[in-house]
What we know:
about 60 residues, single chain, mainly alpha
Amino acid sequence: MFCNRDNYYKGYSEGLAEGLSQKSSSFYLNVLNTCIAIATIAAAIFTYNNWQDARYISIR
């Protein structure tokens, strides 16, 4: 019930071990998340470049 030092770290280490075991078993989800991250970064760069062009055109 109470959060003291002993049970806090015990729960943290158990949760960490469970998370690591799930992480190693979900390789395809990691690949999917990596692809989504790369696509998001590419879209952000593309949008930023177009915004810079539009700002330059609107000033002139």
